Amino acid sequence: MENHRAQIEDANFVDLVVKDNEPHFLSTRFLPQKGIVLQLDKVVNGVSPPPRAAIPWGLPRYEAVEEAFYNDTPERLFEDTLIHLRERVGLGSRGEYVLVASLIAHTYFLQRFTYSPMLGIYGPKEDSGKSLLGQTVAFASYRGIVLPSVREAYLVRITEAGGCFLFIDFEDVEFALKQSGTAKDLILSRFQRGSRVPRITNPKAKGSLESIDHYETFGPTAWATNVPVKPTTESRSIVLTMTQAERTYPEPDEGAGLRLRERYVAFVARSKSSWNTIPSLRRPFLNRLGNLAGPLIFMVEWMAPKYLDDLLQVLTEKEQERTAERSSSDEADLAAAAIQAWVKGGKAPEVATAEIATIFNADRGSYPWSADRVGKRIRNLGLKPGASRRARRTLEVNETGARDLARRWGIDFEAIDFTPVAGGNGQDKGNLPSTLALVEVGKS
């Protein structure tokens, strides 16, 4: 399976469609008297479509695409995507439906994005609807494919087809990825543009570089599992937790998904005349979630702005979940210790790592960290080394940096009591709140 968009080198190319039971290239052309019109071709720049039997996703029907091209609207399409989801899957809130609808929509415009959030579907119990959701999303997404297994050779080839949405469904997705060997790095790198995986395809080639091909991995992905995943996988994903369904939903309907897909292909074709009016990409959230959320916010602002508040609410909840997890980590404790040491030192521009280590170790009992270890770990949080010639090793800290550190690691800066009290090792230290308060997203 080849990447036809790259092969035919035509910016007006839209997708493969079927007409008279045969695949065709669909593109757009500008005619002075008519504006943007659809164009079908059997051959472009000497390239022909593959046989229909070789294409693993359902091909949009040209007649349906043409009908939607002239009569559909972005808002109506988004509304119908929401209706499609509500009729077929049970989610926890209106915002989650908007999130999933925007994720489906973004799969058709990957060329505009640097990131594509992986959709994580966690269902700790059987019959929670995780497979139903994943298949429903796959059938409506751009070139959606449900993978029965994770085999490297197939993944490499299907990835080269360009932008295919892949749904991976296993009881324990982490175990399945581990068993897949080197296919794991291909799956986990799909969320970011520019990632490429090397594979030796011609061992007998004379030059060492000539024996290696590099494959672009970027593309939309969803995974479903009954077992919690590792932080590496979760950090690349926006995760929905499925609960026991309250009613019976219909079986996944590839035909219904295809009807939405036909309308999205028409939307892609129609939008080629209005690229300059499309909103710019916003990033209202911190860290990686900001990168992942950007394409979803973009699609809602473009297609159906009245649902933006619903999307931002559910994304804010996801950000707070991530912040809560960060706030219970060693890194969060290090950040809090650095802030306390800075205040205890009179908010001087430099703080000794030994002082940070003293505060950090006060409640660690028999497992204290050395000042050297604390210094190395806390520099990874973004603090810069202080003056190198000072007798005591130091880190630079200021008001802006301290507040930013607190925000990133889920610490309520104002809630920290800096009144010295006796620490567990006899040293004085400021009091952290008994429960680290979460900072409201978007505010310092």
Number of helices: 16
Strand content: 15-25%
Query: Order of SSEs, N→C?
Result: HEEEHHHEHEHEHHEEEHEHHHHEHHEHEE
CATH topology of the largest domain: Rossmann fold
Q: Largest beta sheet, briefly? A: 5 strands, parallel
Pick out the low-confidence regions.
420-444
**SS-based class:** alpha/beta
Number of strands: 14
In the CATH scheme, the class of the largest domain would be Alpha Beta
Terminal CA distance reads 49 Å
Domain tally: 2
Range of helix content: 40-55%
Arrangement of strands in the largest sheet: 5-6-9-4-10
Shape type: elongated
Q: What is the radius of gyration?
A: 26 Å
Characterize the structure shown.
With 444 residues, this protein is α/β, with parallel strands linked by helices. It has 2 domains: 61-325, 3-Layer(aba) Sandwich (Rossmann fold), CATH 3.40.50; 328-431, Arc Repressor Mutant, subunit A (Orthogonal Bundle). Helices cover 40% and strands 16% of the residues. It is built from 16 helices and 14 strands. The chain has a 5-stranded parallel β-sheet with strand order 5-6-9-4-10. The protein is elongated, with a radius of gyration of 26 Å.
